[in-house]
Amino acid sequence: MRLTELKQLQIDPETHAYLVISFVVLICCLIGIATRPTSYLALLWPANAALLAVFLRFPHLNLKGGWLGAFCAYLFADLLTGNQLTLTLFLTLANLISVIVSLFFIRYFNINYKYYNTGFTFIHLFGIFAFAGCLASAAFAVFTLPNIPGSFMTKEQLWVDFGLWWTGEMVNYILILPLILAFPRHKEIRHFIYNRRHKSYRLTYYLPILSVMLCVLLTHIFVGPGAMLYPLAALIWVALTYRLFSVTMINVFVVLLSYHSLAQYYLAQNEIANSSTFISIRIGLFMLALSPLILCIISQNRNELFKRVLYLANHDSLTRTMNRHFFFQEAELRLKQAKKLSFSVIMLDIDHFKRLNDQYGHHAGDGVLQQFVELVRCNLRSNDLFARIGGEEFVILLWDIDPGEAQYIAERIRDLVQKTPIYQAATKPLHITVSLGILHREAPQTQNLQYLINQADQALYRAKHLGRNQVVLAS
């Protein structure tokens, strides 16, 4: 069958969900089975956390077909390793209960899991899967599996088995769930690859990950009860340096290697594999992984909030152009750093704007300003500066440009504003014009920026005096 025919082949949503979920769960189950250091104690069982994360991130897969695919994958993976059908059936139910209960409480408390990395959403998710999903799964397992012939669980060690199952699931969820939820989308991956070609990092950028690797190595060499704390400081450094997805990957690396080192150490000390020692280790690893995730989310939220506040402080709230203070700051910095570049300053003023406000109201005037700004911005380059300095007056700094091109841009803006109607919801389309004064200079200059703007402003007033809707070059 050709590729074009495959693309035209339509699969119903239930079948699509079945195929995708069964494949994901089967691969995760086989990974978990491959990490069993003893006959039943898996070092990592990612299937349950992966299933919940996929259902959260891709709700269109949360269908009957998806659940059937997960059920079949659990059964097939466990039967493949030689378990009895009855035991396999109850193990599958215990695994699914973890996901079912977690999804129920997420919907019950109306948690917007799409914004897991904002506010306290991640803490709420952590509470649900740790104290609801994992707890329910462990309770179901210890109350059913010891009664099945050939089970690895016994009634004599009921609480130990409960603790091992519960804490093991908690570690699985804290590693796998954030990893899948934070995995970059297609657009983000393309943006990252594109930016990486143009961006270079200093050596200090890689120091946190190098420190993590060193700490994990020390955990393996000097293994003991305190080895779990070796990577803590390095993980804090990582959380304050890298993005959330990078932190989740580093978390998986640290926790799995630390768990392997500690497990080998205690097994060599003739400790029983299903003893409270491993419960303590898993709780410690869970807290070790949770700390950098929370710190990273707090740090990212703080940085995003700072960027938002800084943007609002430097831009006009109505038109989203630069405000006067930010424009002067950026323009003076360019003039100070420039060696010998030509630039142009353009002053713009919408003609008869006060009359428009009086006739149609200030709300209509605000809409005119916003649409006018979009018209102007479409005719500027990415390195040009554009600011609102008051009312209907704007200023543009065209950087590294010859006089002819600057004159052409100014005339193009004037012509476009004249020909483009401004549409308002409650009124008929409005037609406006704009007057422009332009000044061209070579940098650096002895005059300051305010003097240059005053010269362009005088040219603007001459344009107004000569009849408006024209461009006047400053003498």
Automatic annotation (TrEMBL):
The chain crosses the membrane at residues 16-34, 40-58, 87-109, 121-143, 163-183, 203-222, 279-298. It comes from the Bacteria. Gene3D superfamilies: 3.30.70.270. It is a multi-pass membrane protein. Its cofactor is Mg(2+). SUPFAM superfamilies: Nucleotide cyclase. InterPro entries: Diguanylate_Cyclase, GGDEF_dom, MASE1, Nucleotide_cyclase, Rev_trsase/Diguanyl_cyclase. Keywords: Cell membrane, Membrane, Transmembrane, Transmembrane helix. Residues 341-475 form the GGDEF domain. This is diguanylate cyclase. It is found in: Cell membrane. The keyword Metal-binding does not apply. GO terms for cellular component: plasma membrane. It catalyses: 2 GTP = 3',3'-c-di-GMP + 2 diphosphate. One of its GO terms (molecular function) is diguanylate cyclase activity. It holds the Pfam family MASE1. The keyword Ligase does not apply. Its EC number is 2.7.7.65.
